[in-house]
Amino acid sequence: MEIQNDQQTLSANDTQTILSRLASRLSCRDFDGSRIAREELLLMLSDALEAPSSCNQQHWHFIIVDDPQQLARAAELAGGNPHFRTCSALVYLCFQKGWTHDNFSVVQGVAAAGYHLMLSAHLRGYHAIWNAGIGDPEGVRAMLDLPSVFDCQGAIALGRAHPDAPARKPPRRPLNSVVSFQTFERPENTIYPVENANTYPFHAVSRDSNPYAQWDPTQWSWAQLADYRAWSVWAKSPLNGVYTSRRQGEASERELDLIPSLPTEAKVAELMPWGGTSTVTLARRLPLDASLTVVELHENNLHFIQDRLPREGITHSVEGALFSGTSLPFATQSVDLVVIAQSLEHMADPAAILREVRRVLRNEGHLVLSVRNRASRYGAEWARSEARGQVPLQGPFTPIGPKRLQQLLCANFEVEELHGIGQSAGGDSEVLKEGLDRFRRRIIALRASPA
Ligand SMILES: Cc1cc2nc3c(=O)[nH]c(=O)nc-3n(C[C@H](O)[C@H](O)[C@H](O)COP(=O)(O)O)c2cc1C
């Protein structure tokens, strides 16, 4: 087919209109469950085929799954992507192996077609999301009856957004932080610490096995932590229940059982709740006249939490405030309760933060703190397997054992009550209120007052 170069015929206005429309695409994780006709799906796929491919080989293959039962099976396999059940179709991005021409050329070609497919869907008024999280590769292969010479590393979900689906475009890094001319140049805080090594071979790294991952947040600067956590929090949409951990189970509720009775119009601060999962539990617990401020390192986290809370049915007004890791944004002795729910172990300098908490707490105020316990079964499991993989989206963390916790607290706080929560490495939330066994539980939660 001969195509005229029609670039000259587009006015600057038309160009801008098209580009703005393309830029407004955002991932949808909340579909309305309606079907898209196959003719329409095929139109979008034929748009996708306009993408470039290495040597024009077009070694791609797209498997469209639009049968509701098979979509349910796909969701089961994927585990973490519930939108597979409610989208209209999943387009599995497959490619023939043995033709990479180095540099993953075949994979690059499929990716080009994948994004073209998303843009086509967007311009045609549909919604889409790309998913690498398709689940166990062999399970997917069996479901798709995919020959062994083909592989599949992702699927694009297509559908119509639910009318209430989140509509905020996830933030983008500033242009000058990711683009440089001629040679590599990039702000320090956007390059994250890794274990020292002479070389970093690409194939030595996978999600579950990453010899270079630096899990100790004290080896990161606050600015690096802020940067990492700020972009990754938008890896999901701010939907009800997002980022709720199966391992945590009911433990959040039990941690917050330690909240004391509060004075009228109490001022409450929560530190570094990342995606706001703990904020939801906390906001439900507070008396209506209490004010709650969540303190985070980056505005991206605050926007995510602010979008999320109404979707969780939280009517309590929650303020957001920023801190750089050094001083908390409160006047001295102005806060009645500070809550740090499993975030101390994510901090670059937990001792400094606890000093700051002491500064901002009123003398009769309280700290409610919980940490993942290094001396628990979970802590051992963390060291044996979790910490060998990629650091999580919430940022690097290292569980804290009872001794270290005591060292961190003793200069500024007196522990009033201490609970050990959860016996197993995950899931249960049995509470132990007395005895030494508390210090072997998955989570140590405590209430302390200024010393
Ligand atoms: C290769 C790739 C894999 C992705 N995998 C998933 C996934 O498994 N689950 C998910 O919810 N989002 C996934 N996403 C969507 C990203 O989280 C999303 O594109 C990003 O947060 C930017 O948001 P936007 O697409 O709304 O601009 C993936 C995106 C890409 C490009």
From TrEMBL:
TM helices/strands, residue ranges: none
Q: In its UniProt entry, what is this protein called?
A: Nitroreductase family protein
The organism encoding this protein is Tianweitania aestuarii
Q: Which InterPro entries match?
A: Methyltransf_11, Nitroreductase, Nitroreductase-like, SAM-dependent_MTases_sf
Methyltransferase type domain span:
277-369
Coiled-coil blocks: none
- Return the similarity comment: Belongs to the nitroreductase family.
The Nitroreductase domain is annotated at 23-78
Per UniProt, the keywords (alphabetical) are: Oxidoreductase
